[in-house]
Amino acid sequence: QVQLVESGGGLVQAGGSLRLSCAASGRTISSYTMGWFRQAPGKEREFVATISRSGGSTSYVLSVKGRFTISRDNAKNMVYLQMNSLKPEDTAVYYCAATESTYGIRWSQYNYWGRGTQVTVSS
Description:
This protein is an all-beta fold. The protein is built from no helices and eleven strands. The strands form two sheets. Strands 2, 4, 5, 6, 9, 10 and 11 form a seven-stranded mixed β-sheet that branches. β5 and β6 form a beta hairpin. It is globular, with a radius of gyration of 13 Å. It starts with a strand and ends with a strand.
């Protein structure tokens, strides 16, 4: 099994940037499609971004496309989410997740989850 730990969250003003990191242990992430999800208070967990095993393909929810970038470094067993031009509506707990599926945009497809990191964007 893979253990995932997110970091890099914090408080940032609207328009600012933040980079989230996901460190994996126990097993290499090269065999997994990786994803980022977020959950705001009182809302459902929402897909944010996903990246294929080799990093060749990415997909984003429309609301973050052009602002967020997901990337991975399999040699370091790390996944990242670069967030630019942050908006107050981006405020949420962000989760890193892994799935054996080739492609995944639904939370139910992911088998392994980190504990989350809080991102708060003030106006």
